[in-house]
Amino acid sequence: MGLAKQMQRCVSSAEENLGHLEEQLLRGGHELMRQMLEKAAKADAASPRCPVCQQPLRSLNGGHRTTIQTRFGAIQVQRARGKCRRCHKWRFPADAALGLPAEGTQSPAVQEIAALTVSKMPAAEAAQLVERLVGVKISAATLGRQARQQGERAQEKRQALDEQMSGPDGRVQQDRDLQLQLALEPFTLVIELDAWNIRERDAWGESAAQRARGAEPPRWHWVYGGTCFRLAHRGETAGGRATILSRGYAMTRGGIEALREQLWAEASRRGLGRANEVLIVADGAVWIWHLAGDRFPQARQRVDFYHVSEHLWTVARALHPDDESAARAWVEPLLAKLKADEGCAVITELAQLRPRLEGAASAHLEREINYLQSNRQRLDYGTAKARGEPLGSGAMESTCRQYQCRFKRPGQFWTQTGDEALLCLETIRRNGRWHLLFPHSAPIDPSKN
Ligand SMILES: [Zn+2]
Fold first, then answer.
1. Most buried of 29, 329, 372, 387, CB within 10 angstroms?
2. Separation of 56 CA from ligand 1 center, angstroms?
3. What angle do CA 422, 426, 427 make, to 5 degrees?
């Protein structure tokens, strides 16, 4: 029965609503579109050159059949094959033109579907969602493998872009207003950093052997992240929620050095070289200030206000262990001093407590004095308020929480290479460069990038 006829029968049935019509059209339309795609998917006009080394191919002959998984189901394609003398391999130049990797059988749309869903949820869930929404059955194993391959492609892309960014051609990657050298108001570039940990099982099946040697297999590993945005791009939604119009992200399982280079490249795209001022806001972690001094030596530094207040609360509770309101009465004037740029006065007050405390409480106090001492140049909250700058690194912390929703699901185990691939996919999408991996996806408005 034709699709149009089926639809009519559908409309006239009392038990079915618009949803049934949509479903009917999606399922029925698939076969039609699959056939159209199969007819259209001819790429043998492509120049018979090796897609890897560009050498002309020899011994060219046609008619080699392959099955490609597409978003409308499997299609059969016939294409020519030729021998590359340099690579010593048979090549199918049409495959590259169709967007298939060597020996790949998943269409670019299926590649994207895998990348998009598996970077958001476990592959088994993704398979169910894809079948329900897209209407094609793709196994969890295929989706997982495909997402991993796309993530590795994303890492290669990131590497190439980051390397270009540090050369003279880097300017083509900058925000459009920076490229066009539009008369820019002087601006402050804000950079926030943070880290979170991820659970991995690197050595599958080796845990027992490692334990037998007395070594607990490492499971928790650090993911390092950063974000950057122009101060003027910070605003509020109609509902009063803080929002940032345009921002860049870096997130990696590859260590602090990897973050340093990725974040530097991203900050450069977003105006690092043109900013009047650069401001780094983060919690007190030592690696952050090392990284900042290394790669962003021009930046002002600020330690997150909330973290500092937590440190003062620790002292308050040591002074008034069983009296929350007395602790509050002690800490609040100090927080007010911090907000008035009087960090040094706060440190002096803490130092005056030394004779009053002993034992564990005294050790607490020393630790907190040290913390404030080492950050005393980073306690400029009065200036922050006056200039409308962030007092803390909340923007980065909420970003980390969003990533964690995917990577900290209970009962899941990851490997470092798999993690990095998926982290990179998520980050490339957030950075507005998804179309560089999947050119068929609508390019994002460059003015918003
Ligand atoms: Zn070749």
1. 372
2. 8
3. 115
